[in-house]
Every structure is written in structure tokens, then in C-alpha cells.
Backbone:
């Protein structure tokens, strides 16, 4: 998803506020990780983040520590898919609600947004399970298949 300059600035502002509230600095390495995730436009593995970040002086230990800390704060979320690599993306509170297309061959995840009618059906389902005593926190809908590179 392509973001405007003002949307990107807003994401960085919110990230800075959340880090400040958690008594953490918006360090150069944290900024680099957030920028990589914004520019990547999709969930990325740690090796992918490090590959992009090597030109920005991003060390593996720093990247992993910062991803872990920012995950706890609600800036980044970890997505576990069917392969050996978890993927990181900015939290939906920063980017908006979306779902994923997952390639079962290479493991790549791509963001996609479903029609509002689908989300309305999901809201009805959540309401129904709520009547059964289950409190839903969020939902996921992933489509599994093969990406254009693997077809």
C-alpha cells in the first residue's frame, strides 16, 4: 500500500509517542526498522529486514531487540505463518485493518483489504460468539495459495 508523506510522518509521530510513553527513545535503529517496514509495504522476515537495513548500519542484535520491544509496545506485530520465519509488520493501529495473501511455496505475505461487506459479516459472527461468552479481540483472514513469482 502506497502511503503519502503526511501518512508516513503521522506513523513516525505516533511511534515516537508510544516509545516515549514506554520510556524508550526513538533511536536511529528503531527509526530504521520502522522505515524499512513502511517502505517494504508487506510483512517482512528478520533476514529481509536485515538485508535492507545493512546499508543503514542496522545490526542483527539491534534489529531483533528493537522488533521485540516494539512488539510489546504495540508498534510492530509478529505474524507466524507456515514456514520457519516469522514476519514483522507495523501494528494495524498504525496502518489500518487488513488481511494477508500467503504464498505456500515461498512463504511471502502480501497485504490486502477485503470488501466492507465481508467485515460486516465478521462483525456479526463476533457478536454471535460474544453471546456465547467469548470475547474476541481481533480477527484474521488469510488466503493461502501461490504468489505470482511461484505460479
Residues:
Amino acid at each position: 500500500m502506497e502511503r503519502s508523506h503526511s501518512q508516513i510522518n503521522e506513523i513516525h509521530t505516533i511511534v515516537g509517542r508510544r516509545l516515549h510513553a514506554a520510556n524508550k527513545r526513538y533511536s536511529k535503529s528503531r527509526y530504521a526498522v520502522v522505515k524499512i517496514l513502511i517502505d517494504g509495504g508487506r510483512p517482512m522476515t528478520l533476514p529481509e529486514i536485515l538485508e535492507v537495513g545493512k546499508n543503514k548500519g542496522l545490526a542483527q542484535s539491534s534489529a531483533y531487540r528493537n522488533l521485540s520491544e516494539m512488539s510489546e509496545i504495540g508498534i510492530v506485530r509478529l505474524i507466524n505463518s507456515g514456514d520457519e520465519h516469522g514476519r514483522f509488520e507495523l501494528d494495524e493501529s498504525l496502518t489500518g485493518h487488513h488481511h494477508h495473501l500467503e504464498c505456500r511455496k515461498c512463504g511471502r505475505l502480501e497485504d490486502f483489504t477485503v470488501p466492507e461487506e465481508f467485515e460486516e459479516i465478521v462483525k456479526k459472527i463476533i457478536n454471535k460468539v460474544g453471546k456465547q461468552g467469548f470475547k474476541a479481540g481481533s480477527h484474521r483472514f488469510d488466503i493461502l495459495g501461490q504468489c505470482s513469482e511461484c505460479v
Q: What stands out?
A: The helical segments are 5-21, 28-40, 46-53, 60-73, 92-95, 116-131. The first strand starts at residue 76 and ends at 80. The chain has two domains: 1-96, 98-151. The longest helix spans residues 5-21.
